[in-house]
């Protein structure tokens, strides 16, 4: 028999406790279990001895169900009390135990009959399966830890600019309470990232985070999607459906694009929030809710209220702690910080070790106004990384293909001179700084473009 005191932290060995009172069978078990040199096997001939040693945390237990001193049921109960997830393999005579099905119900990992012709194969298989289960559970635990790590605010929300410092201090205020949070900001500014970060930094982090994009769900389906329905509640309700609110119980529901919700449904949502309970469509049985609500919209909800598109009472109910995410163009050199972060991420995912950002590429990024915000920056960086072929990303690799930059340009109120500069800048970005092409499009001479560029350079950056 091997030593019996090695701890679980010794990853190379698997501690197996085997309880068996028949000395011959016990010898055979020891032989089989130590065929694998990484197994650290300890034998017990009574149930009491096994129970007393449980705090030594074995990884797997094999248990004869009929030990001389205590019943198999009692031993199992003790094991489950101390180590609920412990894989226990019952090895017993056919007549000794209740139906195997009953054993599985009480959480036994496997059941092997001593009379089984393939006992050896079955035992080794079962031990291997149990080991795989343990590894999986450990992986899940590591992932869970990583996930928590990942959601520390400044680890997922990259930025150190003044406006982002303010955001971080607001976010800290959401951690120790359940206050409703309403996030606004242009598309791609990170509203969902922020919502997730709030959830995973809060005491609800082990509960679910359920995101619902209101704009993405056809209006007739939204009510049942949010609140659920009973079988037969309406034509087409073939089976019961649990709604997103119910799914989010004990966790957080993130209602993205809340401004797109139909006014009739807004009334129902208000009721659910006020009463803190939900009834599935077709049911009169309300279900208590313990859900934190976070909403997001790129719309100006105050204006929507004024226009009669959004209920005022719901607006105030949902406002809670309002967080406005500034557009990327107002976050100064965060653009470069986020770019570096995205480059690192892309490099890791694609095994491109030496990706760097040249000075001129940095300047180009800093001068662009990113109407699509960080989502656009991400697309630009990923394309640039590919274009660079894996080395230094230069200005030429950076291409802007914004969908709505023309609209953005016209939305601002500017002087004629500013408009001219903005148009020149936009076209220079679009045509990769090709002055001849830009001059051609604007039907002016090259020197005019050069003059504008010179004048633009003399304007201090804001
Ligand atoms: N501060 C940040 N640092 C790093 N990545 C970010 C940051 N903010 C957002 N991102 C990334 O930018 C992308 C867009 O973010 P997200 O989906 O959260 O934006 P959104 O405001 O919810 O967009 P929409 O309004 O279109 O739903 C995601 O890939 C996200 O990981």
Cα end-to-end separation: 76 Å
* Helix content, binned percent: 40-55%
Alpha plus pi helix count: 20
> What is the overall pLDDT average?
87
Low-confidence stretches: 1-10
User: What characterizes the major β-sheet?
Assistant: 5 strands, parallel
Domain module count:
3
SS class: alpha/beta
Strand numbers in spatial order across the main sheet = 2-1-3-4-5
Tell me the radius of gyration.
Answer: 32 Å
What top-tier CATH class of the largest domain fits best? Alpha Beta
* Strand coverage percent: 5-15%
Globally, the shape reads: elongated
Task: Tell how many strands the DSSP assignment holds.
Answer: 16
Bound molecules: adenosine-5'-triphosphate
CATH topology of the largest domain: Rossmann fold
CATH superfamily of the largest domain: P-loop containing nucleotide triphosphate hydrolases
- Architecture of the largest domain in CATH? 3-Layer(aba) Sandwich
How would you describe what is shown here?
The protein is α/β, with parallel strands linked by helices. It folds into three domains: 14-143, Rossmann fold, CATH 3.40.50.2300; 156-326, 3-Layer(aba) Sandwich (Rossmann fold); 329-457, Helicase, Ruva Protein, domain 3. Helix content is 47%, strand content 13%. The chain has 20 helices and 16 strands. The chain has helices at 23-33, 47-52, 72-82, 100-105, 119-150, 153-156, 162-172, 191-201, 219-227, 244-247, 263-275, 301-306, 312-319, 334-350, 359-366, 373-388, 405-411, 416-430, 435-442, 446-457, and strands spanning 14-19, 39-44, 60-63, 88-92, 110-113, 181-184, 209-213, 228-229, 241-242, 252-256, 277-278, 287-288, 292-297, 321-324, 356-357, 392-393. The strands form five sheets. Strands 2-1-3-4-5 form a five-stranded parallel beta sheet. The protein has a five-stranded parallel beta sheet with strand order 7-10-13-6-14. Strands 8-9 form a two-stranded antiparallel ribbon. A hairpin with an 8-residue loop joins β11 (277-278) and β12 (287-288). The protein is elongated. The termini are far apart. Mean pLDDT is 87; it is low at 1-10. The protein binds adenosine-5'-triphosphate. Residues 157-159, 185, 187-193, 256, 298, 338, 341, 374-375, 378 line the site of adenosine-5'-triphosphate.
